[in-house]
Write a structure and sequence with these properties.
The protein is α/β, with parallel strands linked by helices. Helix 3 (75-84) runs antiparallel to helix 4 (92-100). The chain has helices spanning 2-8, 49-58, 75-84, 92-100, 104-119, 133-142; strands at residues 23-26, 40-43, 64-70, 124-128.
């Protein structure tokens, strides 16, 4: 399938434009299989940073790898994620903190980003702010992020 997408971006219609870059989703702990032919990967959201880094270091993959980071808006949202998304498990300790402080979701997401950056194992993050676009933008701007 990836080769079909690559071939789609060729020919006179696309002359003078950059080649398509193809990305796909990867799950922590799972082999890449056909995904290894992609130019970049988006890693599914996880709350196990050490497992994430170990998995990345075990991969024989030279493309960009971007980790999904979800800004949890509330304890209710975290519980809904646990109930409806099979491969994502928000730990109870995070849900408990969200219960008493809904702003913790943004702070925790920023902690995750810092951990991912400091690991040196990834090319960046795929930030999912859900309903917190403005708060995320303001916080990132105050931290000097671009």
């Amino acid at each position: 399938m990836l080769s079909e997408v690559r071939n789609f971006g060729t020919g006179a219609l696309f002359e003078g434009y950059p080649d398509f870059k193809i990305g796909t989703v990867a799950k922590v702990g799972k082999p890449l299989g056909w995904r290894a032919a992609a130019d970049f990967l988006f890693v599914q959201i996880t709350y196990a940073p050490h497992r994430l880094v170990e998995w990345r270091r075990s991969l024989d993959y030279n493309g960009g790898v971007y980790v999904g980071v979800l800004v949890l808006a509330s304890a209710r949202m975290a519980r809904r994620v646990n109930a409806t998304i099979p491969d994502i498990r928000v730990p109870e300790r995070i849900i408990d903190k969200l219960e008493s402080d809904p702003a913790y979701g943004l702070d925790f997401a920023l902690e995750q980003i810092e951990t991912i950056r400091d690991s040196g194992a990834f090319d960046g993050v795929h930030l999912v702010p859900v309903t917190r676009f403005r708060q995320v933008a303001e916080k990132l701007q105050s931290l000097g992020a671009k």
